[in-house]
Structure formats: structure tokens, C-alpha cells
Write a structure and sequence with these properties.
With 436 residues, the chain is α/β, with parallel strands linked by helices. It has two domains: 300 residues, Alkaline Phosphatase, subunit A (3-Layer(aba) Sandwich); 111 residues, Arylsulfatase, C-terminal domain (2-Layer Sandwich). 28% of the residues lie in helices and 16% in strands. Strands 5-4-6-1-7-8-2-9 form an eight-stranded mixed sheet, sandwiched between helices. Helix 1 crosses helix 6. The longest helix has 30 residues. The mean pLDDT is 96. InterPro entries: Alkaline_phosphatase_core_sf (IPR017850), Sulfatase (IPR050738), Sulfatase_N (IPR000917). Belongs to the sulfatase family. GO terms for molecular function: arylsulfatase activity. Keywords: Hydrolase.
């Protein structure tokens, strides 16, 4: 049986801000993809930032296990010896290509070929419309091939990363803000431009779907749509709250391959993607991966493949080490250094929304946080010191301890090496003083 082609679409900082996930953003093309395929409603990343999260997708490992504990352009890299999705698919006859954005490095080298890709198409700006133009050309070239070997192609979009300044905002009255942010005109303006960025991305997804069908690949191509982490707004990106870890994940299979047209609420993590793809195409899963294949879930053999996952944050453009664990009901977070209650990367700190929330967020953090996700889905009420939850805290604390020890987390040995982004040197505020 011929192995299926795989088109992997990954956006930037989108979280689940799509119409199909109940947000009021107009994304009809992505919504249609979800309705025809499988929508996963409880799919999370394990790191709320670009490079580490993408490293986990590529390797099936948590950040400190694949080596990329911070951003690629700030000296953090995947360990050279580790297998990646494209490197292993190459071995079973796939032709692997990357078009557009990537944010992983190996041994400090930004080189798609070192990540395992056989072909790379650079796209200035990595805007979705331009990436899609190249993808259409890619499919036309595929149609000229004489051999029937399958392809794996990753399409990387810049959207919905900041800045949003070039986007015409939607009407401010159309915006529905998340519960964890204040409803002010500044925040609404910020979201109004973010909405439009997502709508532009949606148009590109529609073109991708149509091109696959028009070029005759729809009967043997799996389409995957996901993003790297939560939205680029305060109390989301850069935090271990669900708003930072939540990611969209949609899969559409060729007709007749698997039952689809439904939504799954099974708890999943993006470290699970590599082993799942490999199970789908009969590729050996490397030893030592942290992920668990959810193919049995897709096949209807089980209802759950995991009951918790771990999350971490070490470096972004500042040092802010955290470790945590999420179950269906609880979120436990441990802060390993003094810092602000809510860390904001530089682009969020200087955003319209960031200026509004600094006074509230730049107060001292606490050692431990616990949230009841059923009673408090926005994670606004830290109950770690509540005596009624003492046993829950102890159990989840032990889980994190055991995980860190078993995986030889570098954080156990002290401060993880790295450096702050130069942009912070120009910021005239009391960020450092509020850490104390």
C-alpha cells in the first residue's frame, strides 16, 4: 500500500483563536477543514514559545530533552544526534521539503538540511500568501514526477506573529476578549489587528486545500494544521497557563482512511505528534521520545492515550524558569526564581495590551501555583496555599520532581546558561526592581 503524502501547516502564535474553536474570528476555511477532518480540543504544547515548542514537534521530546531550552537565534539548539520527523521519514522513502518559516537550529546553525529536510524553499517574510504561492508551484512539480514516492512538506507561516501594525483592524465592537485580560480600548485595538492577521492566514489555508484537490493529490494526502503555542498577548505566550499552552490541532485524512468529521476532547501534547505520524506511515518510533502515539485514539480503540503532560519554560528573551504539570482537572506550576507574577516577552511588554497590564502583572511571583481547571478555567485563582488542596499539591509536586530527576533536567543543577535580548536594555521601567 502506498504511503500517504503529508502536508503539515504550522502558524505562529495563533493558539486556538479560530472560529472552529469557538472564537468569533472569521476563519471559514480552517473551520471547514476541521468539520471534514478531526478537531482536537485538548491539544497543548509543552513550551509556550516558538523554538522550544517547534523542537518538541520535530523530535517528540520535551524541551530540556531535545536541548532547545530557549530561542534559536539566542543560542539554543536541538542536540545534533536526535532524530527528527523529516530525517526519519527520509529513511522510509519520503521526499521531505520545507517552505517558509522555521525556528529551530542544530549546533547553533540555522540550516533546514541539518533538521533533516531534503529541500528548502526560502520565502522572504514567510507570509502565508507567499508560502502558499510556492506550495502551489511545489504541487505542480510533483505532478511531473515519474516515481510515486510520497512527500512530506512543512508550510511555515509568519502569521499570526506580532507586529500587527500592517493589518487593517476589524471593528472594535466585533472583538471578544479573553477573561484574563481587561476590556479597554487599547486591548480591543490590539485584538482587532490580531483578528485580521488570522483571517489572512485562513485565506491561505483555503488556497492550500483547493490546490491539493485541483492537482489531484486529495485522495492520498493527510493535511495537518497546528500552531506552535498560545497567542502573543500578555498572560498567554511565555506562560504555563492554558492560554500559553493551548494549540489548535486539526487532521484531515483521505476519504475512507479513518472515520472523521468529529471533535475529540482527549488530552494530548505536541510531543505526541512525531510518534503518531510515524505510526500512521509505519516508520519506527525512535527510542527515548517523550511522546505517546494517539493513533489508537484515531482508530477508535481507546478514549485516552495520556492523563497528564509536563510543561516547561526556561529562556525566552529573559530568564524565567518554570516547570509544571497539567492533568484533566488541575494545573500545577513551580517558579524557580524570583520574578514578575506574569512574565511578558519584550514584544508583549511593549504592546498596547502590555502597557495596560504592567502594574497588575509586574508584582512578585510565588513559589507554587495550583489551579482547578474545571472551576477556574482562566486560572485566575491560585489555590496552592489552600489547605483543602494540600494533597493535590503534594501529588503534582512529586510528579514534577520525579520527571525532572528522571530526565536529568539541567535546572536541577542551577541556573541554565543564556543571555537576555538586547532590546530589554532600552526599556526604562522597573521590571528588575519588581522581581525582588
Amino acid at each position: 500500500m502506498q504511503r500517504p503524502n503529508i502536508v503539515f501547516i504550522i502558524s505562529h502564535d495563533t493558539g486556538r483563536y479560530l472560529g472552529t474553536y469557538g472564537r468569533n474570528v472569521e476563519t471559514p476555511e480552517i473551520d471547514e477543514l476541521a468539520s471534514e477532518g478531526i478537531q482536537f480540543n485538548q491539544y497543548f504544547c509543552s513550551q509556550p514559545q516558538c523554538s522550544p515548542s517547534r523542537g518538541s514537534i520535530m523530535t517528540g521530546r520535551y524541551g530540556h530533552n531535545h536541548g532547545m531550552m530557549g530561542l534559536a537565534h539566542m543560542g539554543h539548539s536541538i542536540y545534533e544526534q536526535l532524530e527528527t520527523i523529516p530525517s526519519e521519514l527520509n529513511k522510509i522513502g519520503y521526499r521531505t521539503s520545507l517552505i517558509g518559516l522555521y525556528h529551530e537550529s542544530v549546533n547553533d546553525e540555522f540550516d533546514p538540511y541539518k533538521l533533516g529536510y531534503q529541500n528548502y524553499q526560502q520565502v522572504p517574510g514567510n507570509w502565508a500568501t507567499d508560502v502558499t504561492d510556492h506550495f502551489v508551484d511545489f504541487l505542480k512539480e510533483e505532478n511531473k514526477r515519474d516515481d510515486d514516492s510520497p512527500f512530506y512538506v512543512s508550510l511555515g507561516f509568519e502569521e499570526t506573529h506580532r507586529p500587527f501594525d500592517d493589518y487593517e483592524p476589524v471593528d472594535l465592537d466585533e472583538v471578544v476578549l479573553p477573561d484574563y485580560l481587561p476590556d479597554t480600548e487599547e486591548v480591543r485595538k490590539d485584538f482587532a489587528q490580531f483578528y485580521r492577521s488570522g483571517m489572512d492566514m485562513d485565506d491561505a489555508v483555503g488556497r492550500i486545500k483547493r490546490a491539493i484537490k485541483e492537482q489531484g493529490f486529495d485522495d492520498n494526502t493527510i493535511i495537518i494544521f497546528t500552531t506552535d503555542h498560545g497567542i502573543a498577548f500578555p498572560r498567554a505566550k511565555g506562560t504555563l497557563y492554558d492560554s500559553g499552552l493551548e494549540t489548535a490541532f486539526l487532521m484531515k485524512f483521505p476519504e475512507g482512511m479513518y472515520e472523521q468529521g468529529y471533535q475529540s476532547d482527549a488530552l494530548l501534547c505536541n510531543v505526541d505528534l512525531m510518534p503518531t505520524i510515524f505510526d500512521l506511515v509505519d516508520c519506527k518510533v525512535p527510542e527515548g521520545v517523550d511522546g505517546v502515539s494517539f493513533l489508537p485514539l484515531i482508530e477508535g480503540e481507546v478514549e485516552q492515550t495520556r492523563d497528564h503532560f509536563f510543561a516547561e519554560m526556561t529562556w525566552h528573551d529573559k530568564y524565567h524558569p518554570m516547570r509544571g504539570v497539567r492533568t484533566q482537572k488541575y494545573k500545577y506550576i513551580r517558579n524557580f526564581e524570583d520574578g514578575p507574577k506574569v512574565y511578558m516577552p519584550y514584544d508583549l511588554h511593549t504592546s498596547l495590551t502590555g502597557e495596560v497590564v504592567r502594574d497588575e502583572y509586574y508584582v512578585p511571583n510565588v513559589d507554587e501555583e495550583l489551579y482547578d481547571l474545571e472551576a477556574d478555567p482562566a486560572e485566575l485563582n491560585n489555590i496552592a496555599s489552600d489547605e483543602a488542596y494540600r494533597e493535590v499539591v503534594a501529588d503534582l509536586r512529586a510528579k514534577v520532581d520525579q520527571w525532572m530527576e528522571a530526565s536529568d533536567d539541567p535546572l536541577l543543577k542551577g541556573r541554565v546558561p543564556g543571555y537576555e535580548a538586547e532590546e530589554w536594555e532600552t526599556v526604562d521601567d522597573d521590571y528588575e526592581s519588581r522581581k525582588k
